[in-house]
Design goal:
- This protein is an alpha/beta fold.
- It is about 35% helix and about 20% strand.
- The protein has five helices and six strands; from the N terminus they run ββαβαβαβαβα.
- The chain has a six-stranded mixed beta sheet with strand order 1-5-4-3-2-6.
- α1 runs parallel beside α2.
- The longest helix has 17 residues.
């Protein structure tokens, strides 16, 4: 696996909570996750995720409004052009982007590799909306010792 970093690598030394969400989430769960994201932002805790699913992207949006550290793990090659919403956090030295694949686009395989990487680097993991049919189900079972409260 080729790993590339952009941003503040010191964030790797922090206590990290991973956030992984299934692509199908109930609306009441979404509201609970927004509350969780706001709490993490207010506490200044480091959150790591691929921020790939719709809900994960929403969480990233909440977190970027705060000042806490964020680690974004890409299941594709590093951005050639940094998305505008990430530039401020990068300039503030509170964002680390990690690419775990040199593929030009994320695939199911690179997304799975990214999710495994996120789980392995995290101290705690919050899985949301994971069912037996979810691609995250195996990770939820494998990393039970790191599980954060469930939403």
């Amino acid at each position: 696996m080729t790993v590339e970093y952009l941003g503040n690598q010191e964030l790797l030394k922090l206590r990290k909570t991973a956030f992984l969400a299934s692509s199908t989430i109930s609306s009441e769960t979404v509201l609970q996750v927004y509350d969780w994201a706001t709490e993490m932002r207010n506490r200044g805790e480091c959150v790591v995720s691929g921020f790939s699913s719709k809900l994960e992207q929403d969480v990233l949006h909440f977190l970027l409004k705060g000042s806490q550290p964020i680690i974004l793990v890409l299941g594709r090659q590093m951005y050639r052009d940094i998305p505008s919403e990430l530039k401020e956090a990068l300039a503030q030295n509170r964002l680390l982007m990690i690419s775990v694949s040199n593929a030009t686009r994320q695939s199911k395989a690179t997304a799975m590799a990214r999710n495994r990487y996120v789980c392995e680097m995290a101290d705690r993991i919050l899985f949301v909306g994971v069912t037996e049919q979810s691609s995250l189900y195996a990770y939820k079972n494998k990393y039970q010792n790191k599980l954060e409260k469930s939403i």
